[in-house]
Structure formats: structure tokens, C-alpha cells
Amino acid sequence: MDFHLTREQDLVRRMMKDFTETEVKPIAAETDETCTYPRENIEKLFDLGVMGMIVPKEYGGAGADDLCSALAIEELSKQCASTGDIVATHNGLCCGPILQHGTEEQKQKYLRMLTEGHKVGAFCLTEPDAGSDASKGTCTAVLEGDHYVLNGSKIFITNGYVAEVFVVFAMTDPSKGTKGISAFIVESSFPGFSVGKHESKMGLHGSPTSEIVFTDCIVPKENLLGREGKGFNIAMQTLDGGRIGIAAQALGIAEGAMEEAMNFAKSRVQFGRPISKFQNSQFAFADMHVAIEAGRLLTYKAAIKKTAGEKFTLDAATAKLFTSEAAMNITTKAVQMCGGYGYTKDYPVERMMRDAKITEIYEGTSEIQRVVISGNILGK
Ligand code: CAA
């Protein structure tokens, strides 16, 4: 196994580190406080080729590999998990399935929109009564001549009220269970598409989350993604890839929180010495380091296997489960390390702790990751 980054991967990491320091860090607290979508930075990320970076050059992208995308998300999330989330969703959950399952025409049209066209993408699977049990959605798609008519609503959609291209899952044959679900590419300009409730969340305040409503929404027949009835498989495969992005996001949050806590511990003097000189702090940082290193190896391994075209479902679920729980644990310890200061909004660790929580929930809860992992190692 090669533990070194390629030249391109190293370049991406360095570019994203600089971008995060100069553009993301300065506005991260304000983005959180004001619940503002970081539009200017997302535009700059389009200009840099990071939005849709996994898309091959012939469809307008940078042709980067999955590890490059994970590195970009990790670096951004060290300072602003919201920005990392917007990129992760766009790359993994919208560009990903179109790249993998789209026709040549769909790829030329939509991947170009999602890269050169600066249109943000989203993924609509979850419904009010179908979260972890993703196959129980009731959103329907009925073929009428040259178009499908979609009805129903989707909730907790990342990028929901800023996105213009959506990968949507709906029942084309409710009698067939998971085999009756199909995937569609839907534009926000299609008749019958609307944005519903904007969510007010514990964390990730810069990441726009909303309900998406389809009311007799007209979707051209050619916007069916993959074959009819293959939607659930497409959703599951997409989430396998998306989970690498969330693992990278959680990793970045954990790294950012550890760095903040270390800086604090080195300068905070109590009982006559910096608190970093107490073994209690030293052991806490040693444990954080071990968890981050392990999480990094799991995440990069999953990304490398995906790019190699190997089966990576188990690796992605393992990486997501481990890094998200590590992020929650490390951010909680970081707040504790900073004491009363850590609990205030003057220090970023309280935001990081709120942001970390969602990584244990979205794109499959920790419990669902355990279902996937145990299913893969024990057999169903
Ligand atoms: N890749 C491809 N196909 C897969 C697959 C995978 N990783 N996992 C399952 N499938 C296929 C199976 O092979 C099977 O297909 P066939 O019938 O053709 O054999 C079909 O899917 C059904 O499989 P299961 O019986 O295993 O499905 P299940 O109903 O038991 O569900 C589950 C399995 C793992 C619990 C799944 O429902 C799941 O992952 N749930 C979590 C959903 C989730 O992560 N939601 C996140 C929403 S998106 C989000 O959060 C982003 C946002 O914008 C906020």
C-alpha cells in the first residue's frame, strides 16, 4: 500500500489549505452566526474547479480522482464544515450518480452545468416517513407521453434552496418495492418544482437545507437516470460514494478542533504552567491524534478503492462510522479543554462540536453504517 499522495493530490491539498486559510477561515464564524450560504466562496470553488472536480475534462470538470475530492472536503471542513458539506453533496451526491449512470447526452448537458455552468447540485431521497428506511418513500413518478409527472415531497435536502440540478428518487411502480423506484434529473426551473420549508439547524448553519416539493412536476422522459426500477440501487451506490465525502468532512472537523484545542492548551496558564504541560491534556491530545490518523487511513483507503473501481461499500461505511464518531468525541474534548472559553462563540470549538453532530446522522446514521458493515462482513 502506498501511503504517499501523488503530485496532483498533494497540489490539491496545498491549494485547498491556502484557500481555506485565506477565504474560508475569515468568514466561518460569521457564516455560522448569520446562517448565510457562503455564495462568494462557492463561486470561487467553481472557478478553481473544485465544484465537480471528479467530473472528467470532456464534461467540463477537472478529472480529479476521489482522493482529491476527499482532500478538498477535509481541508475546507477544518475551518468551515458547511462549506465542506456543500462541496461534498455537489460532488458526491449529484455529479457522482450522473457521471456513473447518465447517458452521454445527460452527461454533456448536466455535468457541464454542474461544473462550467456554476449550477449547484443536490440529492433528493429522504422523505418525512422514509429516512433510514429509504425504500419507503411515497413520492411518485407517472409516465404520461413524453414526460413523467412527479408528486410528493423530500426533506432535509442539502443545498436545497440554492441548487438548480437535483437527482430525485420516486416510485414508478409502488407494487414492486425497491424495484419500483426510479431516479430522475430534475431542474429547479421545471414546472411544478418548488422549495418548501428552510430548516433551522443545530449546526452547519452555512449549508442550505430545505424541503423540496413536487406538484405535478413535469420531468422530460429523457431525464430518467439509469433504467426504470433501478433507482434504489443508484441511491445506495451514490450513498457509498457520498459517505467518503462525509468521512472526509468529519476528519476535517476533528483536525480543526484538535488544532484549536492545542493552541489554547499551549497558551492557557493555570496552576503556574500551560495546561498542555499537564498529563491529562497530553493524553487527550495523544488519543485525538490516534483517532485522526486511523480515520484518515480509513477515509483515504475508501477513496482509493473507489477510484480503482473496486467494491468499497464496506470501506466507505467503516470510514464514515469511525470518523464521524471520532469527530463528535474530539470536538467534545476540545470544548472541554478550552473550558468556559470553549463554550462561548468567541472560540470556534463550540461551532465545530455542533457541526460534528450531523456527521453521525446524515448520509446514513451511525446505526445504519453498523447495519451496512455487519451485513457486509456477516452476510445478510
Ligand atoms: N450498492 C448498490 N446496490 C445496493 C447497495 C449498494 N451499496 N446496497 C443495497 N443495494 C441493493 C441491493 O442489492 C438490493 O437490490 P436487489 O433487490 O436488486 O438485489 C436493494 O438495494 C435492496 O437492498 P436491501 O434489501 O439491503 O435494502 P434495505 O431496504 O434493507 O435498506 C439500508 C438497506 C442500508 C438500510 C438502506 O436503506 C440505507 O442505506 N438507508 C440509509 C439511507 C440514507 O443513508 N439516507 C441518507 C439520505 S441522503 C442525505 O442524507 C443527504 C442530504 O442531502 C442530507
UniProtKB/TrEMBL annotation:
<feature type="domain" description="Acyl-CoA dehydrogenase/oxidase C-terminal">
    <location>
        <begin position="229"/>
        <end position="376"/>
    </location>
</feature>
<keyword id="KW-0285">Flavoprotein</keyword>
<keyword id="KW-0274">FAD</keyword>
<protein>
    <recommendedName>
        <fullName>Butyryl-CoA dehydrogenase</fullName>
    </recommendedName>
</protein>
<dbReference type="InterPro" id="IPR037069">
    <property type="entry name" value="AcylCoA_DH/ox_N_sf"/>
</dbReference>
<feature type="domain" description="Acyl-CoA dehydrogenase/oxidase N-terminal">
    <location>
        <begin position="6"/>
        <end position="117"/>
    </location>
</feature>
<dbReference type="InterPro" id="IPR009075">
    <property type="entry name" value="AcylCo_DH/oxidase_C"/>
</dbReference>
<dbReference type="Pfam" id="PF02771">
    <property type="entry name" value="Acyl-CoA_dh_N"/>
</dbReference>
<dbReference type="InterPro" id="IPR009100">
    <property type="entry name" value="AcylCoA_DH/oxidase_NM_dom_sf"/>
</dbReference>
<dbReference type="GO" id="GO:0003995">
    <property type="term" value="F:acyl-CoA dehydrogenase activity"/>
</dbReference>
<comment type="similarity">
    <text>Belongs to the acyl-CoA dehydrogenase family.</text>
</comment>
<dbReference type="Pfam" id="PF02770">
    <property type="entry name" value="Acyl-CoA_dh_M"/>
</dbReference>
<dbReference type="Pfam" id="PF00441">
    <property type="entry name" value="Acyl-CoA_dh_1"/>
</dbReference>
<keyword id="KW-0560">Oxidoreductase</keyword>
<dbReference type="InterPro" id="IPR006091">
    <property type="entry name" value="Acyl-CoA_Oxase/DH_mid-dom"/>
</dbReference>
<feature type="domain" description="Acyl-CoA oxidase/dehydrogenase middle">
    <location>
        <begin position="122"/>
        <end position="217"/>
    </location>
</feature>
<dbReference type="InterPro" id="IPR036250">
    <property type="entry name" value="AcylCo_DH-like_C"/>
</dbReference>
<dbReference type="InterPro" id="IPR006089">
    <property type="entry name" value="Acyl-CoA_DH_CS"/>
</dbReference>
<dbReference type="InterPro" id="IPR046373">
    <property type="entry name" value="Acyl-CoA_Oxase/DH_mid-dom_sf"/>
</dbReference>
<dbReference type="GO" id="GO:0050660">
    <property type="term" value="F:flavin adenine dinucleotide binding"/>
</dbReference>
<dbReference type="InterPro" id="IPR013786">
    <property type="entry name" value="AcylCoA_DH/ox_N"/>
</dbReference>
